Amino acid sequence: MVTALDGAFGYKTKEVYDPVYGAIHGLTLCLRKELDKSIVKMLDFEPASTPQTIVQKTFYELLYSDKHLMAGYAGGKRYSLITKPELLEKDKERVALKGRKVLVTGGGRGLGALFSRLLAQKHQPHIVLLDIIELNENSARLAAMSEEELKAYKTGTLWEELKKKMDKATPAVLEREFTRLKDSAGLYRSIEALKALGVQVSYYKCDLNDKEVFDSVMAKIKADLGQLDGAVHFAGLERSKLVVDKTLEEFFMIFNTKASAAVNLLKSGVVKEKGFWVMISSIAGKYGNLGQSDYAAASDYISKLAISLTNKGVRAFSVDMTAYANIGMGIRPGVEAFLKSQELDFIYPEEGMNALVDELAYGRIPEIVLSASLGKLDWDKQLRFDPGFPNAGGSEYHFIERTVKSVKGLELEAAKELTLEKDPFLADHAINGTPYLPGVMGIETFAEAAAAVSGEVPKELRNLRFAVPVKLLRNKPVNASIKAAASKGGYDLRIESDFVNAKGVKLGETRTHFTARFETKPAGGSWESAGAPQPPKHAKYKVTAEEIYKVYFHGPSFRVLDGILSIEKDAVLAVFKRPAAALWRVKTPKLLFHPMVIEGMFQACGWRDIHFDRRLTLPDAIGSVIVYDNGPDPDRLFLYAKYKGMNEEGRTRFDAWAYDSEMRPVAELKDYLMIPSEI
Predict the structure, then answer these.
(1) What are phi and psi of 363, to 5 degrees?
(2) pLDDT at 455
(3) 65 and 31, same structural domain?
(4) Which end of the chain has less Cβ packing within 10 Å, N or C?
């Protein structure tokens, strides 16, 4: 495929140009992967290139060149494209959003709904939702139903209604109608959640592919609200099918929903002349994918449209998005299995949508790629993925999900939404069916907060107190606040949360769950005087893992003890084994403070209380927790715990160490207190 745009596929020119080049590029990227036995090339030349130059270079690429798909020729040089990581500078807000009217197409569900919620939380605009979902008098009633009530309604009332209305009601018809009603209920909940955040919300039902309806809705929006300040175009369809199996009607249905709709929105005048535009594109339009020729063509079309608008002086940018965990097109059974087989890393929805909100407010460039590793999908290694690079959401640390306030060296306030979707390990730390944030993950959170505020990765935390457990009641998310404040040569650390009702009203006082202290001059460990026994050459367990986890409540990813080697009233020797079950389903983040090794020490100490005192004890406080490195957990370690008696309040006291077969320490607990449990 040969074009003469600017010799750099539209990234060099400052002129306004036809985005149809993007459609050509996106289609070719997919053809290359579908016609893998053929030579497929995509070449771009400067408009002033002579026919002779174009022909000569094209023959050269076909006969002698490497296998890279893309090559641009400009200024006598041959170019290709590379995507590299870059931090977003958030020193100055470039697009003011508070009180502005922002259109979000496809905003009634999925990523569009999540983006709208995060935009509302951070910037308080007037959100104008546009979707094909019907909102009616039944939406509120369905939205109030639990999952069990909805299932009962589906198989009972709805099924009976359909049988009365139709000559032949089938399970497929039932599923289609139920999906429609469920989408309506979800839209109602999304709108109510936005209102609870204190923002104005307007909703308009619109089929972007129906010109008469589209024109009518655009006219109504302008009559109701006047011209809007900007638009974020999420709407799109995707139906994977190879080019040879796809009809023209199917191709243009997918293409028009995203690409033609963007042009129609521009032409409608619904957004002010100097308003902003955000085009939600896809990595398929940048790197190609099997069966997505139409979707890739539409994606790169709107990416080129954003660049062209930028060249015109309008604030516009496109976001080439990867697949997301638990939401969107990437989780459909066939698509998800294929992407995982290609070793593509899914990213978390909140992580991506937070980054998108920040890009809108602070960004400057006309196109970004929002992705982790593409794995085998990146045939030409064009994505310079760096797993150590800070997350696009603004923090390089998993538990410091969103930074609210940060003054390096003085204070940090960050937010973390704890959910079973983002942190599936919570399901393996559930008591009587209720997930609890493990104390070791609270310790990891403190380590990450200390690193974020001080710029120094900690090796020791002191005065830890597990005051109030963090529970996900009825499996509902908990919004935790992580705070660090400089004080007397170190930092005071806290994890807090508020109870907020369905209307967004805070009830009661702020709860302080865990507290800790980070000193910039650590006291250091006591390994030399620990008296830990030499690891035995042949491990024969007094208590096996199977016996341990018949008693303990921990699920697979928290089953860190391989067995107990010896157990005396004043000492326990156990073996840590890194679980085969992963803590995270998508991508394990970099952890700083060996939380699972510390969990092993917790469990070894706890087993001593079960064995001798016949009581289950849980973490209460730690005088000091120390790690000797900040790397990944070893596969196998020895855990030695010394019992130091019981304090006046009935808490058992321990010191404990984790070390390898060469007697090298990994982690240490000083004055670890355990409290009897009612479990």
Answers:
(1) -75, 165
(2) 85
(3) yes
(4) C
- Do 114 and 191 reside in the same domain of the chain? no
Q: Which residues of the chain have pLDDT under 70?
A: 329-333, 387-395, 502-505, 678-679
Partnered with residue 465 across adjacent β-strands are 515, 621
Among 468, 461, 465, 514, CA closest to 491 = 461
Q: What's the confidence (pLDDT) of residue 392?
A: 45
Domain annotation covers residue 394: no
Positive or negative: CA dihedral 219, 221, 223, 227: negative
Q: What is the pLDDT of residue 331?
A: 67
Residue 422: domain span: 402-519
Work out the burial of residue 356: count CB atoms within 10 Å of its CB; fewer than 13 is exposed, 13-18 middle, 19 or more buried: buried
Q: 609 and 494: one domain?
A: no
pLDDT, residue 197, reads 87
In a domain, 210, yes or no: yes
Instruction: Tell me, yes or no, whether 431 and 365 share the same domain.
Output: no
The conformation of residue 71, written as its DSSP 8-state character, comes to: E
Q: Are 438 and 405 in contact (CB under 8 A)?
A: no
Residue 655, CA distances (Å) to 61, 571, 598 in order: 68, 10, 12
Q: Are residues 235 and 358 in the same domain?
A: yes
CATH code at position 461: 3.10.129.10
What gap in Å lies between CA 151 and CA 125, rounded to an integer? 36
Bridging pattern class, strands 367-370 and 561-568? unpaired
Question: Rounded distance, CA 105 to CA 130, Å?
Answer: 5
Q: In whole angstroms, what is the distance from residue 443 CA to residue 201 CA?
A: 40
Task: Look at residue 382 and tell me if it is in a domain.
Answer: no
Q: Read off φ and ψ for residue 555, nearest 5 degrees.
A: -85, 180
Element (H, E) at 281: strand 271-282
Q: Which of 289, 226, 236 is nearest to 262 (CA)?
A: 236
**pLDDT score for 538:** 81
Q: Are 234 and 280 in contact (CB under 8 A)?
A: yes
Q: Is residue 440 part of a domain?
A: yes
Residues 344 and 479 in one domain: no
The Cα–Cα gap between 301 and 318 comes to: 10
Whole-angstrom Cα distance, residue 352 to residue 348?
A: 6
> Based on the domain organization, do 459 and 569 belong to the same domain?
no
Mapped onto helix, strand or coil, the DSSP state of residue 422 is coil
pLDDT value of residue 393? 46
pLDDT at 330: 65
Helices (H), 18-103: 20-34, 51-63
Q: Are residues 220 and 303 in the same domain?
A: yes
Residue from 478, 477, 479, 473 nearest 432 by CA: 473
Domain end among 519, 536, 558: 519
